[in-house]
Design a protein that fits this description.
Elements: E1 2-7, E2 22-23, E3 26-27, H1 28-39, E4 42-47, H2 49-52, H3 56-61, E5 66-70, H4 78-86, E6 95-99, H5 107-115, E7 122-127, E8 130-131, E9 135-137, H6 139-147, H7 154-158, E10 163-168, H8 180-190
Parallel strand pairs: 1-4, 1-6, 4-5, 7-10
Antiparallel strand pairs: 2-3, 6-9, 7-8, 7-9
Helix pairs in contact: 1-5
């Protein structure tokens, strides 16, 4: 099982690179990578020049399981990063799409989604009606992503697909850090 972690965003709403922000003594991206590595055999991280340095400590330890793809055009948006990551999948099986700013996702979250995949094209977690990540996708979704125009979105590609809505009481699925206020709430709950 492989995971594509999107970590090339410009962090416009945050006012700076949010993936560098500390949580329990480590950058936010480190927490997301640990969860992906716990839940996957191989992780493809799509970075920008700004976030690539955060991956360096993991390359030596996980060099056979961690692939870094640099997005030299992060201004093209998240879907472009998704296409870059999907292009580096090495197998034809299911895969996860994850975000670098969801620091509370652990390996168990990945396993929960995998348990309910049978018969579905996509498994998407939801918490209190809000869609979350990671999203578990099958090979037809990878093909649709790779063939879609760059101005597409994963959301639009999932319309009309067989998507299982995995309902959960766990807020980790939707605890992404997009604004200074969201970061302050995270620090209040979990400590810096």
């Amino acid at each position: 099982m492989e995971t594509v972690v999107l970590a090339a965003g410009c962090s416009k709403r945050m006012g700076g690179c949010k993936l560098h922000l500390p949580l329990k003594g480590e950058p936010l991206l480190s927490h997301a990578l640990k969860g992906a590595l716990e839940g996957s055999s191989r992780v493809i991280v799509v970075t920008s020049l700004e976030t690539r340095e955060l991956i360096t400590p993991y390359l030596e330890q996980f060099n056979d399981r961690l692939i870094v793809v640099e997005n030299s055009h992060p201004e093209r948006g998240q879907f472009y990063s998704t296409q870059l990551g999907v292009a580096h999948l090495s197998q034809e099986g299911p895969f996860f799409l994850a975000l670098g700013d969801l620091p509370l996702i652990r390996g168990e979250h990945y396993r929960q989604l995998l348990e309910v995949l049978s018969g579905w094209e996509v498994v998407r977690p939801f918490h209190q009606g809000n869609p979350g990540h990671p999203v578990l996708c099958t090979p037809p979704i990878a093909l649709a992503i790779s063939e879609a125009p760059q101005d597409s979105s994963v959301h639009s590609l999932l319309e009309g697909r067989k998507v299982y809505h995995y309902m959960s009481d766990d807020p980790a699925w939707v605890t992404d850090i997009d604004t200074p206020e969201a970061y302050k709430r995270l620090i209040t709950l979990y400590g810096e």
